[in-house]
Design goal:
Elements: E1 5-7, H1 11-18, E2 20-22, E3 31-34, E4 39-46, E5 51-59, E6 77-79, H2 90-95, E7 97-102, E8 104-111, E9 118-124, E10 130-139, E11 146-155, E12 166-168, H3 176-180, H4 188-191, H5 197-200, E13 203-208, E14 234-236
Parallel strand pairs: 2-5, 5-11, 6-11
Antiparallel strand pairs: 1-3, 1-8, 4-5, 7-10, 8-9, 8-14, 9-13, 10-11, 11-12
Amino acid sequence: MCGRYATTRSSVDLSALFGAEDETGNPITARFNVAPTDPVPIVRVSHRRELRILHTARWGLVPSWSKDPKAGARMINARAETVATSRAFAPSFARRRCLVPADGWFEWVKPEGKGAKQAYYMTPSDGGELAFAGLWSVWGEGDNKLLTCSIVTTAARSTLAAVHDRMPLLMPPDRWDAWLGDGAEADADSLLTPPSDDYLAGLELRPVGPAVGNVRNDGPELIAPIQAETPATLTLF
């Protein structure tokens, strides 16, 4: 799963990077410890206006039919294996896909035997931007209208599988157009194909300190590398 990540670029930078019109309304601040239900930047397409739009959405998708927006806290991730058929996610997969900008994401592993969990930060080794495959939905009406999103996850591959068995579905730039297009006419298998091993090889698995485990902590020190011995065999946590 993906339950914590970092996104630190400004709305100006994200608009330029994704070729999107900024409609966030308020400045986007750097976040090094994004947690479920936090407001996060997303990029979607307005088919009526034929352009990409940068919005802020609450992380945790709330289906339009949900009686309570609190349901979103349980829907931060959508599994690639079932996203096209799930009652909660299928409508958004068909018509409301988005990109979720990120610098990297966190996972925790527990060594065999005794020992504290070790946090790892997965991020491009060249400092570049990541884009997670996402879904969006609108819940409520009027002043209660809420824009929410979820991150699509897939089975981890390459060395990432040593940290966790799931990972965000990453979207290289050459797949942005297809993902943001009209899913009713798109091939689900093609859209949900994980990136190549060559692409994943450009990611760094960085051990970081335990402070990221507390959602109240936020700052660049959370992604600073530390010296940590990685066990030969890991028990996924």
